[in-house]
Design goal:
The complex is a heterodimer of chains A (343) and B (288). Chain A has 343 residues and is an alpha/beta fold. In chain A, helix 3 packs across helix 4 (105-118) and helix 5 runs parallel beside helix 9. In chain A, strand 14 (225-229), helix 5 (236-249) and strand 15 form a beta-alpha-beta unit. Chain A folds into two domains: 10-195, 3-Layer(aba) Sandwich (Rossmann fold), CATH 3.40.50; 216-341, TPP-binding domain (Rossmann fold, 3-Layer(aba) Sandwich). Chain A has nine helices and 18 strands. In chain B, helix 2 packs antiparallel against helix 5 (201-207) and helix 3 (107-119) crosses helix 4 (140-148). A nine-stranded mixed sheet of chain B has the order 9-8-7-10-6-1-4-5-11, sandwiched between helices. Classes of the chains: A alpha/beta (343), B alpha/beta (288).
């Protein structure tokens, strides 16, 4: 068990693949900055890989004060055991008080293993993190300035606040697309600290034979904004309106099963129980009535705007903003407004 | 198919961790109390969906390469219902891990207890569902693997065996990865692996009578109708690592979610309406 160290840094895991950072580390740094400032400690990014030092610069520019760099050829491609080993030895060396990971496939593979080895708590898939005080109901022991880990549970029917007051570091994975990155501060720099991986002589039982990447053009899961259409779009031709909106707003285009079955968009864009599940920061639903199977794949989106001519469509039950109207009229108005306001 | 050396002559010893969960996907009006909280008693207790996929993965390994499939569920005696279902579908042996000391376990304590139980079975392969629908954490599988010192392969979609190695296809979010994994190994399985086979009438008739001692006046049944029952002491789990004592996370607060109450706003389909919506999204950094 690690020592309670209230001066410990706040860490975020800066996951990278093939030398490229996704949006996730920047989002984590946005939230991490807020937590570190509240605690009056440094914000650090943990960067692991092989030949990835150049990624320290964008991490500083996204808000990191420190980048802990671990480079080893064994870390070139993500493998759970190698990353866990390196991460655990780094935590033991530096004693951070908070460590956050993206709730990505990589983060949800690595974080539980790290927490297990350190025997500390971990909360999955948080949608918010705050600093607060907590009194243990049983022991009446009080804790100040600890991490409130806020997440939906029970199929999204409740929101739970979880704390891990004793076994530090306090660890959480954070849902993609929910935290806001800071504006890039060009030229901002920080302290780069190199660490040994400690992997010499460690047997890694996994050999990666092959990786086939999905086309990034249809990366719905990683998209912060999704514009999706259903049968109500009316034609493949009309779907171009959705692409135009997605272009203007910096989003990806998806479709309901009906839209896919009607040939309006490709199968890989299908959102719902039989397609992909998404939870972007913003979901704009166009001409989708909202079958339960579709809602299951998108209702956890942070903000949902629904556009539909039928005011009784079920999609409005999960939407935060409803526009009852013709998407052929509404979408061009949205595009115009976004362009005017420089969104 | 590929039992290339003597070590694999008996096939693979597979263990599957399964969980009984409330059916959170079916939270309807009746399951909500007047104060907006969930009436758990009104929800059916089901075999966690992705644990069914995990069982199917193990049964396919047994079908093709031989060996045996043991299922383990940790929980209240009622969890025997899903152990019986697993036996009906083709599992060879079932264990219930049940103990008051295990109550209140978070993922760390749960993975510790399950790892102690699994150790007693000395498996080559362990399968877990990717996540359970009551917590959606996806943490227990990787944590069991860490405690056992097994390789962990998450998000498994396909599997082939090659002697002392497994060739695993897994989803890495940004694509698909193929790994060669040295056994013993643990896999967390997603729905993409394929649905659990239906049970045969013959097995169903037989195994509906299977019982754990706790369901039978603390007497074990004879033969293969016996569901094994394990306490924390039986598996050598240290009390201070189980249940509340072994769980570093505490639930501080719970708030019920009321679907689309209050925070729904209708926006008129006019230039002004849409303009103000877009301004709001820019102001709170949703766009831009």
């Amino acid at each position: 068990m690690l020592q309670d160290r209230t001066q410990g840094e706040v860490w975020v895991f800066a996951e990278q693949e093939e030398g490229v950072l996704s949006d996730v580390p920047r989002e984590l740094l946005g939230k991490g900055r807020e937590l570190a400032d509240k605690l009056g400690v440094k914000l650090a990014a943990v960067l692991m890989g092989d030949g990835v030092e150049a990624l320290a610069k964008p991490l500083f520019e996204a808000g990191a004060d420190v980048v802990h760099l671990v480079e080893d050829k064994e870390l070139k491609v993500f493998r759970g055991k190698a990353y866990r080993h390196a991460f655990v030895s780094l935590i033991r060396e530096c004693s951070p008080q908070i460590v956050i990971f993206g709730a990505t496939h990589m983060g949800r593979d690595l974080a539980p293993a790290v927490a297990s080895e350190l025997r500390c708590g971990l909360t999955a898939d948080c949608t918010d993190l705050q600093i607060g005080d907590y009194t243990d109901g049983k022991t009446k022991e009080s804790f100040t300035n600890i991490l409130m880990q806020i997440r939906p549970a029970f199929g999204g029917n409740i929101i739970a606040t979880i704390v891990n007051p004793r076994n530090w570091p306090q660890m959480a994975t954070v849902r993609e697309g929910v935290m806001k990155p800071l504006a890039v501060q060009e030229g901002r720099t920080g302290e780069l600290v190199r660490h040994a991986s400690g992997l010499d002589g460690v047997e890694i039982p996994v050999e990666v034979l092959e990786i086939v990447r999905r086309h990034s053009s249809v990366n719905l899961k990683g998209a912060r904004i999704i514009v999706a259409g259903g049968a109500g779009v009316g034609s493949k031709e009309n779907f171009k309106l959705l692409y135009a909106l997605a272009d203007a707003i910096g989003g990806a285009v998806g479709g309901s099963r009906a839209a896919v079955d009607l040939g309006y968009c490709e199968h890989e864009r299908q959102i719902g129980q039989t397609g992909v599940t998404v939870r972007p920061a913003l979901f704009i639903s166009c001409g989708i009535s909202g079958a339960v199977q579709h809602l299951a794949g998108m209702q956890d989106s942070a903000k949902i705007i629904a556009i539909n001519t039928d005011k009784d469509a079920p999609i409005f039950k999960v939407a935060h903003y409803g526009i009852v109207g013709d998407l052929n009229v509404v979408i061009p108005k949205m595009i115009k407004s976004i362009k005017q306001k420089g969104g | 198919m590929n039992a290339s050396n003597n070590h694999r002559e008996g096939g693979y010893n597979c263990v599957v961790c399964i969980k009984q969960v409330p059916d959170t996907k079916k939270v309807t009006g009746e399951a909500m109390k007047a104060d907006g909280t969930i009436n758990r008693a009104a929800l059916a207790a089901i075999f966690n969906p992705e644990d069914r996929n995990a069982l199917e993965a193990a049964l396919r390994v047994k079908d093709i390469y031989g060996g045996k499939v043991t299922v383990i569920a940790m929980g209240l005696p009622a969890a025997c219902a899903i152990l019986r279902e697993a036996l009906m579908c083709g599992a060879d042996k079932a264990y219930l891990v049940t103990d008051r000391k295990a109550a209140g376990s978070d993922t760390l304590a749960t993975s510790y207890i399950l790892s102690c139980a699994i150790k007693t079975l000395n498996p080559d392969l362990v399968f877990c569902g990717r996540q359970a629908i009551d917590g959606d954490t996806a943490q227990t599988g990787p944590q069991i693997a860490e405690k056992l010192g097994f390789a962990a392969i998450t998000y498994l979609e396909d599997l082939k065996m090659d002697g002392d190695y497994a060739i695993a296809t897994r989803d890495i979010g940004t694509g698909i990865e193929k790994d060669r994994v040295k056994l013993p190994a643990l896999f967390t399985v997603t729905e993409k692996f394929g649905e659990l086979r239906p049970f045969s009438v013959h097995r169903a008739m037989k195994y509906k009578k299977a019982k754990a001692p706790v369901e039978n006046g603390n007497q074990p049944l004879e033969g293969d109708l016996a569901i094994g029952q394990l306490s924390c002491d039986d598996i050598g789990a240290e009390a201070d690592r189980c249940g509340f004592a072994g769980s570093p996370t505490n639930v501080h607060k719970i708030v019920s979610v009321v679907l689309a109450g209050g925070d729904y706003r209708e926006v008129p389909p006019t230039d002004e309406g849409i303009g103000s919506l877009v301004s709001g999204l820019i102001a709170d950094h949703t766009i831009g």
